[in-house]
Amino acid sequence: MSTRVLLTGASGFIGSAVLKVLSKDPEIEVHAVGRSKPNKLPTGTAWTSLDLMSFSDVRDFVSALRPSHLLHSAWIATHGDYWSSPNNLDWVGASLNLLRAFQSGKGQRILIVGTSAEYDWSRPLSDENNTPICPKGLYGVSKNALREILASYCLQTEMSWAWARLFCVYGPGEPPEKLLPKYVNRLLNNESVAFSGGHELRDFLHVTDAGSALAAVLKSPLSGPVNIASGQAVSIRQFVREIAEQIGRSNNLVFENDTSRAPGELSSVVPCVSKLRNGTGWLPNWNLTEGIATACHSLLNARNI
Amino acid sequence: MSTRVLLTGASGFIGSAVLKVLSKDPEIEVHAVGRSKPNKLPTGTAWTSLDLMSFSDVRDFVSALRPSHLLHSAWIATHGDYWSSPNNLDWVGASLNLLRAFQSGKGQRILIVGTSAEYDWSRPLSDENNTPICPKGLYGVSKNALREILASYCLQTEMSWAWARLFCVYGPGEPPEKLLPKYVNRLLNNESVAFSGGHELRDFLHVTDAGSALAAVLKSPLSGPVNIASGQAVSIRQFVREIAEQIGRSNNLVFENDTSRAPGELSSVVPCVSKLRNGTGWLPNWNLTEGIATACHSLLNARNI
Known about the structure:
By secondary structure, chain A is α/β, with parallel strands linked by helices. Chain A has helices at 13-23, 55-65, 87-104, 137-157, 179-188, 207-219, 236-246, 274-280, 288-304, and strands at 3-8, 28-34, 46-49, 69-72, 109-115, 160-166, 168-170, 193-195, 201-206, 224-228, 233-235, 253-255. In chain A, the strands form three sheets. Chain A has a seven-stranded parallel beta sheet, sandwiched between helices. In chain A, helix 4 links the parallel strand 5 (109-115) and strand 6. The first copy, chain A, starts with a strand and ends with a helix. At the A-B interface, helix 3 and helix 4 of A face helix 3 and helix 4 of B.
């Protein structure tokens, strides 16, 4: 039986990284969909422009394609807006419509992109088996609700499913408001940047590694939630320091000597990666220094055009 | 500000009972919708045939009506099928579409019909504040997921919301496969019926009382989940005995002397009704004897036509 993958959100930050990996896999026939065709696609990609909000179009498309695997990475992702946007409700509905269409076409395995925001962040470790769920924001709540329905639906339809919880993904192509591009641009503009707080740990994963990890989970028999992360937590301060050093602007960055957290700031969020590693053998290709280098390089190139 | 209620599922078992109550309330202007118009409607009811699966029709209708209140009782309710039907996924999507339309039209208060199947039934009492959630079946999971999204959505939109958890509702108009009509019909057919098990407690609520309780919660400021129940738990055995007595067929009913539960049979499910009573002052109108009498009367009439 051949592996025919339907990949949604294929023009997005995460989706396009997955597409690159899947399109190189000789065992996989990948069909990428998104609202509008990107300028650059991996050679030989089968692309279809499809709006997941057009329910009957989705049903028609999936029923004709009959994919064996579904990797659903599409969702509202507008920075600053996705957290509380009412569009989260539409994305739950569109995802459920997609699930039913996939099941009707005899689909076998589903991987959907979830979020670290499903976890109780007050815990020292985010572990799939033991950390309590406490979804935050309309975004976290909507993703979590979709996961609950997915689990119950798959239980009775005998489809296999996994749920990829992403943490901090960075790299070329991320929105300019995010941590890395924001600091690169401020520092390159010769602003003197005061950095306060940031003592908490985060797991930063290069987007190319996120893509290969998702592809690995899709191909594995792993079931249920799976953390997608590097396994190397560093402080936000350390991440920003590395950025400043790489672009030669360490002198512009002033770390304030505060030790307390700003109100509303999160505690450390450290994912356990045993399930991912033991279940797939996957390991990241990039360490933080190399990963930040590619991201900075891409931003520098963009500024010089 | 007038109270303009949009009532969905208005031709259903529960919805039509609510409609009767709301249509008599001088402070309320009720707009009933359902897929097809029922033969009998309370005098002066404003009815619109509307398929909630037609998302754009729903948005157009709600945007023109601009109701202040939403009582959403529509859902798949086919006996024996609703528990695991994939249509549950469609109903989540349709409900989310309805919520967004209602909010866009400046709606203020939402009451949605939930289910006792959201509770962990292994607990002696189902209490809104203290009993853990453990939704069962694709039905229970889907309703519960909708509730989680509703709570988060209302938090940021400042709409008020309540969630009516129904337990065992019986009475005229219930599907023939349910406990009361099933036993009435078997006993009236002069079958000798052996009844085993049924020692567990249930809270049976007459459908007319369910209608008045839902209307009371809608008009109240109660927030979050609210159990809708009589407050009088009886054993299933006692309920069936009452049925047999009322139709004069006690001799046809043989209670087997077993004390153990059949595998898969539920333990007692006893709802706490303090929140409902303290928050609305509502009390049931019917005791079990009177309630069963009206239900049996209606079934006897139907057989004699």
